[in-house]
Amino acid sequence: MPTYLRDDATDLRVIDRWDDGVGWLAAPAEETRRASHAVRGDEGGVWLFDPIDAPGVDDLVAELGEVAGVAVLSNYHARDAGAIARRHDVPVSLPASMTRVEERVDAPVERFSGTLGDSGFRVRTRTPLPGWRESVAYRPDDGTLYAPDMLGTAPLYRVGDERLGVYLFRRPVPPRELFEGFDVARIVVGHGEGVFERPDEALEDALSGARERFPRALVENGASQLRALAGAMWE
User: Fold this and answer.
1) DSSP E strand boundaries for the chain
2) Does residue 153 sit in helix, strand or coil?
3) For residue 191, which of 37, 70, 18 has the smallest C-alpha distance?
4) pTM of the full structure
5) Residue 234: is its pLDDT beyond 70?
6) Which of 119, 162, 209, 214 makes a 20 to 30 Å CA pair with 203?
7) What is the radius of gyration, based on Cα positions, of the chain?
8) For the chain, which domains are there?
């Protein structure tokens, strides 16, 4: 199974449907299962998170409404944000301290702090490892949590019966403070399908068991995560 499939996508798979949002995999056969999401904002416009383009994406998003903006919340998720933003004549929105992305998107960029436009999502930004900036987005109104890289459900994130896994190289020091105070109704991620059934339990299990399960995760997923890390350096 290839780590990434970066050719033009032809195999769109819809995931994560709920009343105000939808997710998709543009290349379901890749090991990293890069996922994209569209979420209806508080004012009715649709916000796209870390999107990858594919035939049918515009029709899928149009079911929710008109695109209001495109947001990139990991500095390794430039993906197709620029091309999609240009097509919909909207800027690419980046957290104020986000690095690396601006030079990788050929579209106007707007910086924001705290809340993402009229989406209702509030962001927290951290540096999980040197050179890596990530923002998680949480909407209190409906309990939607989006985590680009820190959490995932792709196989290279999980071990045993985990439904949600912490990024391998953060397992020794799980990022519990990043998710404190969230009352989650659903968790959607940048790699894999979302967690809709008892997401609070899945999140607590992922964080509380991350360190204990690190040795197993290193053995089972270490090679896959190193390949993914090396490949992400080119994005």
Assistant:
1) 13-18, 21-25, 35-40, 46-49, 67-71, 92-95, 109-112, 122-129, 132-139, 144-147, 151-152, 165-166, 186-189
2) coil
3) 37
4) 0.95
5) no
6) 119
7) 16
8) 13-232 (3.60.15.10)
